[in-house]
Design brief:
Blueprint lengths: L9 E2 L1 H13 L6 E4 L3 H6 L6 E2 L5 H8 L7 E4 L4 H12 L5 E4 L2 H8 L8
Parallel strand pairs: 1-5, 2-3, 2-4, 4-5
Length: about 120
């Protein structure tokens, strides 16, 4: 279940894991998963199905690549700082259902999927 956009702009890794499991069971995804790290970081590790929109190009690429403002969006980075910035930007552009994953892929690797390399 999605957090309320009025309550928080963050989603916890376990919440995203549950949403991903439900989406897999439903054979489809009705949200965008965005990795806002840089391409070299994306090559090291990523959450399966994530789309790369580096924070360094976010202002130019995000609105083009994310045309549907009503769908939920989860943004993650390494530790959660860049994704918080990206989430703030998207919310200001009218993407109200945008959430930054708390702790980033580092926390995801520790708490959810230890197969994902840490760096």
């Amino acid at each position: 279940m999605w957090p309320s956009e009025s309550e928080t702009s963050e989603i916890q890794p376990h919440e995203l894991a549950s949403i991903l499991a439900d989406a897999g069971a439903a054979k489809g995804r009705n949200f965008a998963l965005i990795d806002c790290r840089e391409p070299d970081e994306f090559e090291v590790c990523r959450i399966e199905g994530a789309q790369l929109i580096p924070l360094s190009n976010f202002v130019f690429e995000a609105v083009q690549k994310l045309p549907e403002k009503s769908l939920p969006i989860v943004v993650y980075c390494h530790h959660g700082m860049r994704s918080a910035q990206a989430t703030t930007f998207l919310r200001k552009k009218g993407y109200a259902r945008t959430f930054s994953m708390a702790g980033g892929i580092e926390t995801w690797s520790v708490e959810i999927d230890p197969e994902i390399p840490r760096y």
